[in-house]
Amino acid sequence: MKNKRRKIWAVVFCAFVLGTTFFVPASSLQDPSSPIPHQQNQGLHSYDDAEKDLGPLVPDRKYILYDEPAPMTKSTENPDAGTKKDAGNDFNYATPVYPGECIDNTPGRGRTGTVTYTDMADWYVFSISHGQDVTITLVPQSGFDIDLFLFDTNQIEISSSTNPASDPEAITHTAAYTGYHYIKVLYISGTGIGGYTFTISITTQNDAASGNDASDVFATALSISPGTYTGYLDMNDPYDFYKCTVQAGKGIHFTLEMKDTALLSDFDITLFSPNGTLVYEENAYYNDELLYPASETGEWRVCIDIFPGWVDVPHPTEWDYYSYGSGAYVLTFDIEESASVPPSIPQPQIVPVARTFKVTNDPLSTKDEFGYLAAIPASNYLKGGMRHAAPIIYEGDDTPTSYYGTEEDCGTVDDTTQYLIDDWNTYLSNQGMDSYLYDVPTDPVIAAADIAQKFWTASDLAVVAVDGSGYTDDVKTILKRTKTITRIVEVDEIQNDDPKISSDLGYMMLLGPKWGALGVNVTGITITSGGQTGALLTQVYPKYIDMSSDDWPTPYDGIGNAGDIYHPVSRIGLWSASTGVATNQFDMLRVTKYAGDRYHVRVRNADSTLTAKITTAEPSDLLVYLVDPHGYVRAPDMPIWNGPVNPIHVWNGLENPTK
């Protein structure tokens, strides 16, 4: 490997937070139900481990290491079931589908697929409640014989349709249990790639073993007594109301479970008194439990509904809101001898003040900060025992606020401020009020006087504060160096069966002052679901703490690599690189070590700040990090999650299906 040299012309420190700083050359190398995975991929394609030269790496930015497009853009044909990739090839990797949701070709909501002689089976899984009737149909492409099978959670065949040639297939079944049922589409014969269309139609309801649907409205709720029941919700049946007779003083106890019976769906439960007043609700993600004391004797009601669901969701004009949720649930009802009123979350009431205080950002002085302080008494105060409030906003601040994507993708403080202004103005409009915008004068003394005269007639309290905006810091240069740094990179490649990878700690390294940063890449990951961490970097000693991780699967819920970790060696000592996947589920653990220079700076005043600046004669990929005495990276910001995050108001759900 060739060593490249770069000239650092000056390193200037301006003191003020005790810390240690070092410089690191960033590499130009890129370098009975069964468990249901949330989103499966059994695609036959794979990704090689070729690294790209993407230029200087910048922390907290997204780098696309592969040319493979995202599933939502792979194909206009929308196979299989809208996932735009191959459905699961066996029972354990079945692809979730949602018969109770709209057919819009988002994952699980498409109804086409393909099979070939090399990819003979497509497996799907769906949710259904006990006693419901389901009809499954399949129409093969002409010239192909494709059969259809239905299995239970124990992989036992329930029914099949094996008509000859390209004849359509059909299965009708009444569910004998609540939970997941599995469909197998099997290639029999045909030349090339055989397409098919399929339908899954749940044609009946059997909520609480009634043979019908529980009512969608309060007045005609389905009557139940203590016991365990099952039910089903979807886009055409978003609510189920049940009623029960309870004596005053008894405890109303419901548990609602859907985590193990409904795919990627969340249902909530709401309790109503006999006169129809909503008294309590439980809306945790997935399973809920409700325990509430009956304040009167009568017919109490509960409503089971979908979150976010198909009704009562925003209908925005600027982005597409992705409605979803369907499947079976289990509802258990008990009457307890007593119950306590659940603690309420305090919601302090405010009186909105119809004004907005705008402070113009001044990065070169502290006048804006003192102007902000001057605005507080008129924007947040008590009057008549009530809290009055109005927002104070900054304008003219283009500081990036997000760490996803490229520089062009990043939002700014002004962007976030505009969201606040929009929401505040909408809130005031709902109160029949219009906001008055007040520009805080740039001189904080003038601002304080003007605000006092404009917004107060009298006050029995006056606060006198010193205007410190004219204060200037004492700046002291405590370190200045001119050095040449040699690019030294070492790569350790450890195979998955190498005993150097400990089952408890991973690949251990004793790192001295020579090394400035580490890159970790776990290659050849073969599994496509689960909650395992793809790659993990841990400081083992002197402080045992996880420093960085790479979420997985990558790049798009498919087989590939977990290689987004690049982190400074913030403390000399023992470090570990590891992965959460099993040794037979990846090929190799690659650790790249980058040499760097360290400078220790002693700052005696804890109220000081520290500024480090590095200049070079030509553009370079040198990075500088500020590390405090405890080994924590203070600058730049290094969030443990280094992957893409969509901007505000953009759906971050399953493969970002916004259409």
Describe what this molecule looks like in 3D:
- The protein is mainly beta and 659 residues long.
- The chain folds into four domains: 5-31 and 482-635, no CATH class; 71-202, Jelly Rolls (Sandwich), CATH 2.60.120; 207-336, Jelly Rolls; 350-455, no CATH class.
- Helices cover 7% and strands 39% of the residues.
- The protein is built from four helices and 40 strands.
- A five-stranded mixed beta sheet has the order 3-5-10-7-8, with no helix packed on it. It has a five-stranded mixed beta sheet with strand order 12-14-19-16-17, with no helix packed on it.
- Strand 7 and strand 8 (157-161) form a beta hairpin.
- Helix 2 runs parallel beside helix 4.
- Residues 1-74 and 651-659 have low confidence and may be disordered.
Secondary structure layout plus pairing:
Blueprint: E1 5-14, E2 19-25, H1 71-74, E3 95-96, E4 112-115, E5 121-128, E6 133-140, E7 145-151, E8 157-161, E9 169-174, E10 179-189, E11 194-202, E12 222-223, E13 227-233, E14 239-246, E15 251-257, E16 266-272, E17 278-282, E18 288-293, E19 298-307, E20 327-336, E21 350-352, E22 355-360, H2 367-379, E23 380-383, E24 386-389, E25 392-395, H3 413-430, E26 436-439, H4 444-455, E27 477-486, E28 489-495, E29 501-502, E30 506-511, E31 515-525, E32 535-541, E33 545-550, E34 560-568, E35 573-578, E36 588-595, E37 597-601, E38 611-616, E39 622-627, E40 633-635
Parallel strand pairs: 3-5, 12-14, 21-24, 22-25, 22-26
Antiparallel strand pairs: 1-27, 1-38, 2-37, 2-39, 4-11, 5-10, 6-9, 6-11, 7-8, 7-10, 13-20, 14-19, 15-18, 15-20, 16-17, 16-19, 23-24, 28-36, 29-30, 30-35, 31-34, 31-36, 32-33, 32-35, 39-40
